[in-house]
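Allow me, if you will, to draw on your knowledge of protein folds for a short while. I have a record of one protein: its chain in single-letter code and its fold written as discrete structure tokens. The full record is reproduced below for your convenience:
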Amino acid sequence: MIEERLAGLRSFLRENGADAVLINKEVNLHYFSGFRGDDTLLLVSADKAFLLTDFRYTEQAAEQAAEFEIVEQKHGLWKEAAAVIKKEGWKQIAFEGNAILFNNYSQMEKELRGEASFAIPVSLDSLRVIKDENEIEYIRKAVSISDAAFEDIISYIKPGMSEIEVAARMEQKMRELGSERPAFTTIVASGARGSLPHGVATEKLIVSGEFVTMDFGAVYKGYHSDITRTVCVGKADEKQKEIYSLVLNGQLLGESLVKPGASGKQIDAAVRGLFAEKGYEKYFGHGLGHSLGLEIHEEPRLSPSSLCEHLEPNTLVTVEPGIYIPGWGGIRIEDTVLVTAEGSEPLTRSDKKLIEIFN
């Protein structure tokens, strides 16, 4: 697996005219080496691969990154990287332009002193778009953990409970089931706060008859899940039912259009058009979905500005339409969907019908 990823990386280097690449983005360190620590750099050329770290991680790195020569730095990580570059005689060095700090960039230029050119900014994230079998299984597991947490929370949540209590319960349940940590800051937005798409949990108490939107995820072996469900704690009124039905129909429409060759813009536009027919398009202000993996937000995306002209098999996207009305509240429903050779497979299994909770 790591050998295949390194082969793809080396092909990328040739295409970009680089002798070697310096990798410092943590998820890419993990992806290309298998190492799960921090404070580390990778240097990869056509025929060599170095992992630079300090004493805390040398043993771990030797176990997790068998394809790499481990270099223990004692006088500074970036200084050590420059020393390796000069020793190897590499002249054209690529670096992650979307990840390196300016101070580190400046230090590398100073350390290399004209012996090598540190002037090829690249993004390696595109090499992670198509997932292999192991990655898909890890994401499946992360999704199953978040599904179980949702099943648990609907038997637990009740009026008078704070949003923070709800978030804590879900995070605890996901930990119990094997999640390394929350995939992101858990969102729990009740009542009028539901109009905040990223309304993280607060001390607000849940009132009977309110919608509660919960957006959360698990992390399994570094890979993320992402699910959103909106439930009514108590009995829903007619307006709540009407808007929930519209969001659900939009979510189902979006999922039905996910398949190989589909355009991210077109899928987003179809759902946006459905909302426009009912006069709610102005209340849907974010993209329809994004991919996920080692990061919670990855390419490809489903949005008006999507760069994805053709979805490919073994990519993933979320489908998460929402309607957010200031002063009233909001609804979002989100699944994670795997693009297959024949079409697509929703990985999220949690019920999407309107749930009224009377605990």
Notes: The radius of gyration is 23 Å. Residues 254 and 267 are 6 Å apart (CA to CA). The mean pLDDT is 97. The longest strand covers residues 210-216.
